[in-house]
Records
---
Amino acid sequence: MLELEGLNRHFGELQALDNLSFSAQPGRLLGFLGPNGAGKTTAMRSIFGLISLDSGRVQWRGKPVDATARSSFGYMPEQRGLYPKMKCNDQLIYFGRTHGLTKAEATLAASTWLETFGLTDRANDTLETLSHGNQQRVQLAAALVHSPDLLVLDEPFSGLDPLGVADMEEVLRTEAARGRTIIFSSHQLDLVEALCDDIVIIHRGAKALAGTLAELRATSQVRRLTARFTDPQTEWDLSFANPTKLKRRADETTALVSSAVEVGRLLTDAQAAGEVSSFSWEPPSLAEIFVEAVNGEVDVSEVGG
Amino acid sequence: MKNVWLVAEREIRQRGGSRSFQVSSVITIVIVLAIIIVPAIFSGDDEPPTWSLLVVGNTPEAFEELAGQTATSQEANLVITHLSATDTANFDPETDVADQLEDHDAVLVNPASIYTKESTPDALVLTVQIGFSQAQLVAGLTDAGLTATQIGEALQSEPLDVVGEDESDQETVQSAAALIGVIALFIAINSYGAWVLSGVLEEKSSRVVEVVLAAVPARSLLAGKVIGIGLLGLAQLTTTAILGLGAAMIFSSVSVPWDLLPAMLSVLGWFILGFGFYAVAFAAAGSLVSRQEDAQSAVTPLTVTLLAGYFVSLGVVGPNPSSLAARIVSYIPFTAPMVMPARIAQGAASPVDIVGSVLVTLLGAWFLIRIAARIYERSILRLGAPIRIWTALRELRN
């Protein structure tokens, strides 16, 4: 288990991490979300000691993270990069060895991962001669080559084509099933919704929400309301429920309403307005939860999903 | 520690295996060999020189024989040509000497003037002088009634046996070694320092550094890089030196290279010290910038310091290795690596100076490495605009 406890870090006037705490469990995928500049990268770097903290600590399996622990971590930073003029195979062997593998172990692991990603025939080509997609695969292989117990991926889906996204999803699921602890950040909330067991949303360096997807949805303060009327001309006045994101399109009315508003009352009111052909009242999507968590400072259209 | 060697090994393999390293090594070796071999081939050291002397008018009877003997004793051939009688009658030194000097090394005109040109060997003039005065002596003695045998006995003399330490020769070799050593050190520290700089920048601009630093501490990465490139540089330097020395032994008159060995070893030793000192500074400078375009301005203070040390070494220390100025710059870590090999090669450095300057440089290197490593650690992950050195230093205090 990885625990971040009360992390604080400022850069000048900016409080990049504000008493941030959360934990990640083995065998589970944790989606680490937040608007741009929320402090995701800073938090991830703190796990690897790449930035110094003003206060707080990072613990792995109940002990402060040290060099030995770090050599069992794998990291794919947001700013991708490997040695452009080094052969893929040599590159993976090197990163395997810096994480404590012997030369023989690293050589074996490198060829295994190149095979997994279908890059065996490119093993002796320098990285810069590979396509962008293949470079991303080698980058992921570099994070995985030493079979890390903890995998931290900063925006692993950014810049991937649909095939690359599918590969990445597959790898993340497989690695989680092997019992690894996995943390990844993403703006593609539909992917996070489909993949993650746990979710942490941070805003301005502080934790805004944390829990399983089901928990987040259940405890959300809003509900998504969708009503259809047989007569498309029906005008349903929803103002009593203080709806947000109210949209009317053809025969359909959608809105977010507070979970405090009784569903029975909504249905009765709708039926009073006209003949209802369908009616749904359900927890919001992850994207809607995200927007709610960051106080609506970003719009759903900005975060995707 | 294991990571330091992994980083060093990667540097050696990647850089040593690169085309540019191999090409630059071959070019360096070819240039050094050319410098040694080409003059040796063209100088033709073993051929005795041939002096051409034109005689206008009469000379004492025995002149040609005596001058010839003197020339032989100096391992030279003397060819004497006489101007024809008609030409001699019309000979005007004012106008004709210049023409004749185009074909001859010197022109002897009676009565007793020798005309020379810039390239006339001093030994030729001396030879003619000796031959001429001896010939006059013979003529005088003959007039006094001595027989040829008596004259021969009177002139018989054993040449002086020249016994000396050959000191001037030794000094020439030593100062040449000092000069070559300083130039080699300057070039080596500069070019291998540039490798360190470009290595740091490559990691920073390709962003790979964040992946590396997740497993390797910044200090280990810095140390490994400097050690790896240093070893590679040392190998290139030693190979070039050994090949150069071998060529010098085969092709030219350097017969006892063992005289040069201490000088060469001191150059290698000071390379390690000087490179260690400057390389970490180059790395710290490289960590302050993110782009190749900014690199040059970041290392300007370093290259200027290095250049200053180089000129001080050539201009001040070279001619006066024992002067007070030379001693002072031996105790400044920035200049000591440039200055000390020259002083050691010339035998001008006392043991106290050697030990003292090594200690001062080590101490300076220790301080610089601490500061440079911290600048490197703090700057290596910062991308974007160059960080000013004063900003970096000020932040260290917080």
Note: Chain B has 16 helices and four strands.
---
Amino acid sequence: MSALTIRAPHEHEREPLLAFVRAELGAPRTPREQAWQQALGPPRCLGAWRGAELVGAVLGRATAVRLGDRVRTFTLISDLCVARALRGGLARASPYVELLGAFFEHFGGSERDLVHFGTPVERSWRAGVGQLGYELLRPGLVLVRALPTVRGADEPGQTVRVVEHFDHQALWLDERCCGAWGASVVRDAAYLNARYADAPEAPYEALGCFDAEGVLRGLVVWRAARLGGEALALVLEWLVPDAEPEVAARLDAALARRAAARGLGHAVLLVPPWSKWFTCLQTAGWLVRPADIALAVRTFHPRHDASWLREHWWYGLGELDLA
Amino acid sequence: MPVPVVVSVRPATAADAPAIREAFQRAFAAVDAGFRARTAAEWEWLYRPQAGHAAPAVVAVDEAGCVLAHYAALSLRAEFDGVALRCAQAIDSFALRGAPGGLARRGGFGACGAAWAELHFGTGPGRHAFVYGLPVERAWRVGAGLLGYELLHENLVLSAGAARETLRAAPGLEAEELAHFDERPGGYETLRTGRALRLVRDAAYLEWRYVACPSRAYRRARLVRDGRLRGFAVWRDGVYGGRRAGLVCELVTAPDDAPARAALQAWLAECSRAAGLDRLLACVAPAQPEFVADQRLGWRVERLGNPWAARSAWPRWPVRALAGRHEPSLGDTDLV
């Protein structure tokens, strides 16, 4: 029988719990970044105590997802950690399994979070697949383009410019894009501002393509990052209606110019393989490459299982906590 | 109409073949508009144990001896990490409509799949540690829930126009058409070495798969230079994922032998043009270096067909890890 007490933290326990996560995970995030991430969506947080000692934690954040004519929540599990002394391998009663199982029980359900997802480390995978119903949604595949190859110069009437702050047009654009998608984050101004415009240290740049009337026709959000020793432009959002290839060409060209000017070698974009842009951007010179970002899902509704999500869920690097 | 009752779930024998084939035709004709009945000769070719492969199966039968459900897999020689082993390709598995439970867990199909796994899946001698297949969506859901299927590869193919200028051989490197794989020099299985998970594509396998098949016509070619085999390819005019194209059943060279690969791709393109087909389709896993190299020659990644599902009995090698080591080809499936 487990000696752990697993529950949501009381208000006064939240900050010690976040500090515990930073310490156990080697402080990959500053306190400010961590607070920002927790504030991005309704936080999902459980701690595990042995007596009075905090020995484990799971952190996640829920995001509003449009699913048909309803809005549901999908939750990204961003952090899972257990005190070093308790890491006893992958046994059935491992604290990882206990913690995650409790998390799913507490927050998941057909009328609660419909999907929990993340990019687990190997030990979580092993416990999760065998005992907690994890499934691989998709092996990591990204589109990569070499920089700079600039084409599609702006023509009179449409301009690409940096978007400092999102307004009501964000939702208009999202609604023009999402018609063919079965499930996708509601990319309204509140979401995009919280996720990108208000991020600590301002690492993101949003490029909007506007027509002569000032209507937002397409959007790219990217940031510079080092991965595998290479300086890359990671594209977090690619939001272009399927029927507007000229908008895509302009944003692609602007991204290439901006990223090349920063001395970056390649741009990396994640779109689902069923997306029109998966095909079109290959024609424009992007190559499909494997990437070490396998996405795991735990779903709580039989109709929206991993097979369904694979074919219908639009997500990109922006939904993950990798960048 | 009385509901048939499963009275026995047992390994199939050679004597069951006519009844299984008859039930197979009924099951697939009911759900696949493009289904083509399989001849007795083709059934014999596929299921009769021969040197190097077999196709163990389990059937559920009713009290009259009628086959209600069937689970089978081709047992094939493979290698992983340089070690010889057997893997299995799930094929022809079905439950007749009206059979108790249908494809559900407690039905004949579930019982057959579970019995097959009990008999043949695992890491012991004579067992299969790696089972794969390309199930349709409904079978996928049953397989994931009941038989431990996991996603191995998405339904992606490489696609190229047969007229592409980049699919040209370098001067002096031309593939030669091949009647049989036992012509010298051999060594087909030695072209790829290393730690990947792949079928053993030796002359015996290739001869069975692409020469002895009684119902499908394949064109075969190899590239020999200085008396040494540099690569081989197998092509077929066929339909994959609902699209007719020149199907690259095999394209095997050493990983770093780009000229040999280009020469064989030129031959494959020529086969397609000669057949009036404007497109080539091939299967290359994303982790293989050729996946990106071929895109640089103008191949594009498309979604087509069904995803690859697999099950692994190796605790250290879950399916998601094997995906990075697996070197598949369209010819690894029974669809081409």
Note: The domain at 7-128 of chain B is CATH 3.40.630.30 (Aminopeptidase).
